[in-house]
Amino acid sequence: MNTCLVVPLGLVDFQTAYDLQRLLHARVVAGELPDLLLLLEHPHVYTLGRRGQESDVLASKDMLSRLGVDTQLADRGGETTYHGPGQLVGYPIVNLRRLGVGVRQYVETLEQVLIRALSEFGIAAHSEGKPTGVWVGDSKIAAIGVRVSRGVTMHGFALNVSPDLSFFEHIVPCGMPGVSVTSMSQELGSDVAVSDVMPALAREFASEFGVAVEWSGLDALASAAATITT
Fold this sequence. Notes:
- This protein has 7 helices and 11 strands.
- It has helices at 14-29, 61-67, 96-99, 103-119, 184-188, 194-209, 218-229, and strands at 3-11, 35-41, 45-48, 70-73, 80-83, 87-93, 134-136, 139-149, 152-160, 180-181, 212-215.
- Strands 1, 2, 6, 7, 8, 9, 10 and 11 form an 8-stranded mixed β-sheet that branches. Strands 4-3-5 form a 3-stranded mixed β-sheet, with no helix packed on it.
- Strand 7 (134-136) and strand 8 (139-149) form a beta hairpin.
- Helix 4 (103-119) crosses helix 6.
């Protein structure tokens, strides 16, 4: 069974996380590291995917400054979304050939990971009959946008655990005007911590992809790479 290292990173700004993804992606491609799942939160940021348009950001530059929100281009699929504290972001850096899945199946499996993790908290979510992502009724609770290069993935998913949902009012989320957005805390009527959701997410990731997960820190990746390459 393949191993996937789960690496919790805390609060990391988008550009720093992207630079780290690129570094780790190269090492997974080279076979120097096993598959990875980075779990983190971002400070307030709007990201525009490959199909994103500047017009999807409705706030003026002055408003963005007052809100304390950065904007960044992202080389992932999808359009425009929001990341911020209280949202669990997952960046799987996994070798799809090693997993034996194609890109479409990979995205669909990520949806199932999120659906099953939400079910552990009593939230009935789905993806059928809706654009890519995970939904509770007609409200979107998780977004997915990925990039695959040399058979290895980058970017991933963003699950609304307990973010300030008002930040979504200043964009056209995922290119869908008027779409409703929800969170775990809103659905449950009580606060949920990102740290409480990580174990469920890791369990369901292991189950859906058929891998053995091991929790790790960034400092342990160097020794893991040394073990693999010797």
